[in-house]
Write a structure and sequence with these properties.
5-stranded antiparallel beta sheet, 23 strands, single chain, 2 domains, 12% helix, 6 helices
């Protein structure tokens, strides 16, 4: 009888006790792959006839910028239409990043627990204050293909724009030359002070720092020389054939993380270097202040390459390992998995000329297998995007009294209608989920970007000036920069 009297109390306690949820899909949002971004100055047709401001490729890189704000980097632009194989069908698409407002609201009705509403709020073009090297178009002579100069028509003194066209390089120098005009942005992170973005690229590979307000490059990080290719070509196949060391063409630094304290960048190569064993790639840490680097070996499990890396804390990271199957490939998605890796106590392989399957690699554990989770939520395997490439932790939420971290996962739709819209999948991750693989989470420390003087007066209680300042600030934020 005594135990029976306790039963209602135990049931009540269980009902109100915070529970840890398994990692689950809590929201999905999208931006149309047929829409245009806010850069009207680049709206004209590219060499392949596609509009120069098509809103695509947003999941190549995704970064959290505080509040509801995220930064997304399209890659080198639309190149699905065959028009000139001498440049791998790349175009003079001007590189940029998109600022997106992501509103996550609880859903009281059927379906997923939350509704995600993404809204594009700004488009920022990437440029250099000093001149860059561009292709002359002469490589098309006598080939049956015509090609004009790769110099962007928008260029002006102090504004030399980066583009995705593969012949925009200085042939007398190696791929690490920071003055090459070609850029293939694959990942992005926001600096601790909120004023800069760091972008990693596949062509160099490069890691550049850009002013978040203007898009102008403010810094360049010298990566280890063993990552660079010495002989360049506008054709990826020719470039691979011409090099015995360095990054494989179009498989450079695909992922980029930043530690929560904002002091260290962590870049992941998509695939092995030419001199390294297939399936064994390098992860590089970069001290932002000193620019010192270290390298670590990562062994692929099921995917064909790594597409992203995001920090859990100062030594643990989630790595996105995937294949190329799914929507856009005409096949069923198979391997889209997130692994937890730990740099603590890992072997630095910087001094090794080549690494192989026997080289000590990072400890890794499977954290989230995306395909079965999406299938369980009604997605046909053929409708799961083939290129899951962007990872970012957003603002924490409370679910049933449990602190839950929001993990945003985005796809690169290759600017192609065949690959669907720009999707943003949101997963709920608890500390219990992370503890299952021996991990923990620390949010990145982000300082708010300074407001305009008018908005600052709001804090002093000057109401009318506040309204003027906020209105002016919003107008600046919405314009194309």
């Amino acid at each position: 009888m005594k135990h029976l009297k306790l039963m209602p109390l135990l049931i009540a306690a269980a009902f109100y006790m915070p529970r840890a949820h398994a990692v689950e899909l809590i929201a999905v949002g999208s931006l149309s792959g047929l829409a245009f971004d806010l850069s009207t100055a680049t709206a004209g047709p590219l060499e392949n006839g596609v509009a120069g401001n098509l809103l695509g490729g947003l999941g190549s890189g995704l970064a959290y910028a505080g509040g509801n704000t995220f930064i997304a980097t399209p890659d080198r632009g639309p190149n699905a239409s065959v028009y000139n194989p001498l440049v791998d069908n790349t175009t003079s698409y001007i590189n940029r990043f998109q600022t997106i407002n992501m509103v996550l609201t609880a859903n009281a009705g059927p379906g997923l627990a939350y509704t995600l509403t993404p809204t594009l709020s700004a488009t920022t073009l990437l440029s250099s204050a000093t001149p860059l090297s561009y292709g002359s178009g002469a490589l098309g002579t006598g080939s049956g293909y015509t090609l004009g100069s790769g110099t962007p028509s928008l260029n002006s003194t102090g504004h030399y724009y980066f583009t995705g066209r593969s012949d925009n390089f200085d042939p007398s120098q190696g791929s690490a030359n920071p003055n090459n005009g070609r850029l293939d942005p694959e990942a992005v992170r926001v600096s601790r002070d909120g004023k800069s973005v760091f972008v990693s690229d596949e062509y160099g590979p490069y890691v550049y720092q850009f002013d978040r307000a203007t898009g102008q490059r403010t810094g360049s990080f010298a990566l280890p020389g063993n990552l660079a290719a010495s002989r360049l070509s506008s054709s990826g196949d020719a470039e691979i054939a011409g090099n015995s060391s360095g990054r494989i063409a179009n498989k450079g630094m695909e992922g980029l993380a930043i530690t929560p304290d904002g002091k260290t960048l962590v870049g992941a190569m998509q695939a092995n270097l030419e001199q390294d064993a297939k399936g064994t790639l390098r992860i590089v840490t970069i001290d932002i202040a000193t620019k010192a680097t270290h390298e670590y070996a990562y062994q692929l499990s099921t995917g064909t390459g790594v597409s992203e890396i995001v920090a859990l804390n100062d030594h643990q990271f989630l790595v996105d390992e995937r294949d190329g199957k799914g929507l856009g490939d005409g096949s069923k998605a198979v391997n889209k998995q997130l692994y937890m890796v730990d740099l603590a106590g890992a072997t630095d392989v910087s001094g090794l000329a080549a690494i192989n399957a026997g080289t000590p690699s990072l400890n890794k554990q499977l954290f989230l297998d995306l395909v079965p989770v999406l299938v369980a939520n009604g997605y046909n395997a053929k409708q799961i995007p083939s290129k899951i490439e962007g990872l970012a932790f957003g603002a924490d939420i409370l679910r049933g009294g449990v602190l839950t971290h929001t993990l945003y996962v985005a796809n690169d739709n290759d600017f192609s209608a065949d690959s669907g819209d720009n999707k943003f999948f949101v997963f709920g991750v608890t500390d219990a989920d992370l503890a299952r693989v021996g991990a923990s989470y620390t949010a990145q420390a982000l300082s708010p970007v300074p407001e305009s003087p008018g908005y600052g007066m709001l804090l002093a209680g000057v109401g009318m000036i506040c309204l003027v300042g906020r209105r002016q600030r919003n107008e600046v934020f919405r314009k194309e920069v």
